[in-house]
Structures are given as C-alpha cells and as structure tokens.
Fold this sequence. Notes:
ten-stranded mixed beta sheet; four-stranded antiparallel beta sheet; 17% strand; globular
Amino acid sequence: MGRPRWLARGRLGVVAVTVILGAAPISAPARALAAASKPNIVLILTDDQTWTSLRAMPVVHDMLIRHGVHFTNAFVVISLCCPSRASILTGQYSHSTGVYANRPPHGGFVAFHPHERSTIATWLHRAGYRTALVGKYLNSYDQAGLSGYVPPGWDRWAAFIESTNLYYNYRLSVNRTIRHYGNRPADYSTDVLKNYAVRFIRRSHGPLFLYFAPFAPHGPPTPAPRDVGRFSKLAPYRPPNFNERDVSDKPRWVRALPRFSPSRVSAIDRARRNAFASLVAVDDAVHAILGALRDTGRLHNTMIVFMSDNGYAFGEHRWAYKMSPYEESIRVPLVIRYDPLTSVGRKDAHLALNIDLAPTFAGLAGVLPATRMDGQSLLRLLKRARPRWRPGFLVEHMVTQLDQPYLPAYCAVRTRRHIYVVYKYSTSPRYNSELYDLIRDPFELRNRVKDPGYIPVVTAMKRRLKSLCDPPPPGFSLPP
C-alpha cells in the first residue's frame, strides 16, 4: 500500500494573507445578494468549556442567548476532543465513525481520514457554500498539515498544526502554507484566529459556512495579556460533590482517587479562574464575527451556533479532567441564534447533542448527506414544532493513553432523569455500574444501582443500554 495522500508533498506556494482569505471588501450589491441567498452558518466551538461558564461571556449572553435558543440540556456523546469533533462533522456516534480517542489506532486524524469525503464541509461545499475552518481541526493532524494536506470540502483553511498548548508558539496551516506565530501579545491565538474568521466573512460572496474553533479554554488555560487577572476575585467553586468525601458507593476507579491536598485545590481554583479569563478573548471574537456578519448584510440570515466539544471537571468527584460519564464532563453549553426562528431568547430543555449539529446544518441548507446520521435536526425544536424527541442517548468511552488515572471503558445511557453507567476493567472480569436520579440528586452523590426502589429503573436502563451500545467501544462488552 502506498503512502497516504497527505504525505505526498505538493507545491506549496507562498501566498499573501489578503489573497488567501479573499479579494476586495464586499460591495453593496454583493451584500444584497448575500442577504437573498441560502442561510449562512457559523459554528463557534470552544475547547473543554463547562456549561456553567457562560457567565464569563457577556457578548454571548447579549448577542446570542437574548436572541436565540439556549439548550439547557446539551451534551456530547463522548467527552474527548477528537472523537467529539468527528461526531460534530458527521452527525455520528463514535461507533459509527470509529473515532474513540485522540490518537491512532482508534482515534486522531488518521482514524477519521476515511470519513472526510462526507462531512458538513463537503455537503455544504457541493451546495454552493463558501466554507472555512479556522482553528483546531483534529488531534494528530500535524504530519498531514505540515505536508500541505487540506481535507475535502474546505475553501479556506487556517488550522492548527499541533493540538496541545496552542495559545502561543504555534503553527497554522493556512491554505497549505505554514505560518509560525511566536509569543508576542499580537500572536495570542484566539485573536489571530478571530482576524482570519472576520476576513473570511468580509471577503466572501454568497452563502458561507464558518467553523471557528479557538483553543480556549483548554488547559493550561492562558488568558490574553489584556485579560490576565480578570477573574482574580472569582469565588472558589465548591458544589456538594467537590473533592467528594464519601465515595464508598462509587466505581473502583473513583474509589482509587485520593482526596485533593490543599495545594491541589489551589491549583484547580487557579486553573478555573484562568479558564474564565481565557474565554473573554473568545467573547471578543464572537463580537467581531457578528459585526462582520452585520456589516455584510448576513446577520439576519445566519445561523450562529455556540458550543463546546466537551465539558470539564474542576474537582467534582475528586476528578479534574474530562472523559468521565459524570455531568461535568458530558454536559456542554449550546446556544443557537437564527433570527427567522429565534428573534426572542428562550430556553429549551430537550436533550440536544453534538451529533445533532450536522443534521441541523444539512436541513437548514437543504442538502442531502451521503451518509447516515445518528443525530436529529434541531430545526424542529427551533420552530417550536413539539416533535417526538429522543428519550435518552448513549455515552461511550474506550480506554486511551490519556486516561488520568486509569479510567475503564464504559457505556452509559443518559435520559432526562437518570444516568446509568456500566464499566468494564481490562484487568478483571468484574464490572462496576452506577445509577443516579438526577432530579433528586443532581450532583450524583448517591449511587442507586443497588437500591431496591430503583430495580424497575435499572431493568429498563439495562435494556436501553443493550440496544444503544451496539457495537460497543473497543475493549468493552456488556455483562451477560
């Protein structure tokens, strides 16, 4: 078998940024044409943002939430960057994409590469959309990016080469040209990406699709120089499950976690303050993007989606990371503004997922995807159509080299009221399971899986899990 296409280095011309991102500023007739064309779509995807942190973003509140739908029960179906982004691009679960991790063999860019010919980018591009990805694409894209590879469907491309610590000293693949950024204030990545995104909007004609994916607030969270110390007085976060004292009813992997020392608690508090501060520059970028949409006559005809690729725990259940099935890891912010349907802000409590974005965009643009999707279009909810909606969804996880410490493979079912999880340990034939009643116990403190009063719930959830967790993640199987 020959080398992958992205390893065959082509002629990489050096092109000025003004040429790369378009021609002259859009004229008044062009603005009128844009206003009359298909709806534009802008996806703003943050990295590791908790669903409770939107209060750090007044622009998102004033310009999106007040004019859109705030989905208060929004989730990802896998709490890890690369597989979540693969699901967003395709509308599919990990067991459909085969992407479960950030690196090969079951993750990263290489695992997703066979699916790149059928994504929201290719569907919209074929429908006449001008498409751009600005920011983070997929983990392990570095080798392909350095070789000049740009996935199908993207007209404009300004993607990080690396996938970790991307606030300063990073490289971007800008339409096959590698651009280096240093550690000056002007190199702060959220601001650099904002400028690429704004130029794309201002210099494009016809309908556009922008996928804007800054690195913030991914750890180590680093605010822009102007925002350092912005949240120095933020109160420590101490929900009832913070540094949980009694974990005797938790699965083995949680019981093995030590309680945090005072220094570890201080580090978690500091990281949370910096995460909030790093979101201020993202908020500035939202303001600039919406301003460019307004100035080009597009704002009233653009769907703007704000979401995170996964949540993050800041000490809940003795955990300060993602990937777990607990609310802090799987629950995310999701706001959609589309003025023809959402001119007055409101909340929606339906279970909305990252796999719902692709079918939503396809439905809005009137395109027919070439592949089956697992998600559902959110357009029906935006229209207040009161459709039959999913009663629950699957969360899946395989053991990866990123597990800190050992987090076993699992499948879980999350409904409006309950979450049921089954863990399988590769070093033991034994399983652990959890059931939480999220109405009575929103902080998941009391595992009800052995409670006689919840036997009917456990029975129903087992049946639903068997149906959804098929095929199971690599290294996982349900109990007989």
